[in-house]
């Protein structure tokens, strides 16, 4: 008997992630897992969705904990033979008014938004099933941060031959130079969140390229996207989109029809491929 299809959304007990789970429960033919680092908040979110007549499941997943990531991988490999849809949504941001030193903000923000998401991808990509969909929720702030980098950095981030190792080294360099207080003179803008999302979009391009080389027959589509400016705990009450509106593009990419060849390795906003 074939394994049922399964979708997994990280950091999905609230905000955009929760809205993505809600939409997938209505549109995806398979099991949907809401995951969060906090079991109490995650199970409460699942119960709320069940009260709406939906049927998500819960699995604990803390993306900055490599053991948690690998335990989740083993679970989905054992019970589902892999994963059909992976939405990497978990992320953090410091508030504008936060007085934490910028070097600390850079380290903490990139730890989750880039390095932990990269670990998630590298652990889960080998178990993405043929025809699978991977959606990395990035941000237009990554594009604006890119445009504020030095011409040399922009050229590397936009190049089609940048390797994952080179990207990792650049992200580590940003954190180090931010901690040393020299990041601006070395060509970086003063936005840790923006650079974390620049990194995630470039990582998505690299991973899509690797899938094309290593698994050309499997029809897996992997993209980064911007959900838009969405009202969440992260952004506050002034953003103009609801979480449900923010979920539209991620869900569109998660449900690209069987046999679709594109988009792949793109940065997508409002269901439209954006220049990088």
List the helices and strands and how they pair.
Layout: E1 6-9, H1 15-27, E2 31-36, H2 39-51, E3 57-60, H3 66-80, E4 83-88, H4 102-124, E5 128-137, H5 140-147, H6 151-158, H7 164-179, H8 192-214, E6 221-226, H9 243-246, H10 248-254, E7 267-269, E8 272-274
Parallel strand pairs: 1-2, 1-4, 2-3, 4-5, 5-6, 6-7
Antiparallel strand pairs: 7-8
3D shape: globular
Order of helices and strands: EHEHEHEHEHHHHEHHEE
Q: Unreliable runs, pLDDT <50, ≥5 residues?
A: none
Oligomer: single chain
What is the helix tally?
A: 10
Calculate Rg over CA atoms. 18 Å
> Could you tell me the strand content as a percent range?
15-25%
The biggest sheet amounts to: 8 strands, mixed
Classify the secondary structure makeup into a structural class.
Answer: alpha/beta
Overall average pLDDT? 95
Q: Tell me the number of strands.
A: 8
Widest sheet: strand order?
3-2-1-4-5-6-7-8
The N- to C-terminal Cα distance equals 43 Å
Q: Give helix % range.
A: 40-55%
């Amino acid at each position: 008997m074939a394994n049922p299809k399964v979708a997994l959304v990280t950091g999905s007990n609230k905000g955009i992630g929760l809205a993505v789970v809600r939409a997938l429960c209505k549109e995806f033919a398979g099991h949907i897992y809401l995951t969060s680092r906090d079991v109490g908040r995650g199970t409460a979110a699942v119960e709320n969705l069940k009260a709406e007549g939906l049927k998500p499941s819960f699995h604990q997943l803390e993306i900055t904990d490599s053991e948690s990531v690998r335990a989740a991988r083993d679970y989905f490999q054992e019970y589902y033979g892999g994963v059909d849809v992976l939405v990497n949504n978990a992320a953090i941001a410091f508030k504008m008014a936060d007085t934490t030193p910028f070097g600390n903000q850079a380290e903490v923000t990139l730890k989750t938004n880039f390095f932990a998401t990269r670990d998630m991808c590298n652990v889960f990509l080998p178990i993405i099933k043929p025809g699978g969909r991977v959606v990395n929720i990035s941000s237009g702030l990554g594009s604006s941060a890119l445009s504020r980098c030095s011409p040399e950095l922009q050229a590397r981030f936009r190049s089609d031959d940048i390797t994952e190792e080179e990207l990792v080294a650049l992200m580590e360099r940003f954190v180090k130079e931010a901690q040393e207080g020299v990041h601006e003179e070395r060509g970086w803008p003063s936005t840790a969140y923006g650079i974390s999302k620049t990194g995630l979009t470039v990582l998505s391009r690299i991973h899509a390229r690797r899938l094309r080389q290593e698994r050309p027959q499997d029809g897996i589509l992997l993209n980064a996207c911007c959900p838009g400016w969405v009202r969440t705990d992260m952004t506050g009450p002034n953003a103009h989109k609801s979480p449900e509106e923010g979920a539209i593009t991620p869900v569109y990419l998660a449900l690209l029809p069987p046999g679709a060849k594109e988009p792949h390795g793109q940065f997508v906003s409002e269901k439209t491929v954006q220049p990088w």
